[in-house]
Design a protein that fits this description.
Layout lengths: L1 E5 L2 E10 L5 H18 L3 E10 L17
Parallel strand pairs: 2-3
Antiparallel strand pairs: 1-2
Amino acid sequence: MKLRKSGPFIFGECTIRLKKSIDAEKAHKIADEIEERIKEGAREIESFALNIEPCKPKRQRIVLPVKSRVA
C-alpha cells in the first residue's frame, strides 16, 4: 500500500493479487470491500485506487506416470 499527502488530502493505492480462478465480478466485490474498509479506517483518505492482478502460483506439481516392475 502506498499513501501520499498533498496539502490536506491523502491519496492511496494498493495492488492485490487474487487467484486466476476468481471471476471478474467476484474480484470486483472483493476490491470494493477492501476499499470500503480502508476508507472507514482512515477517513482522511480522499482517494484510493485498488489494482487487481492475477496471482502466480509459487509451486507447481508435476505428476509422472510410473510403471511398477515386480521382480
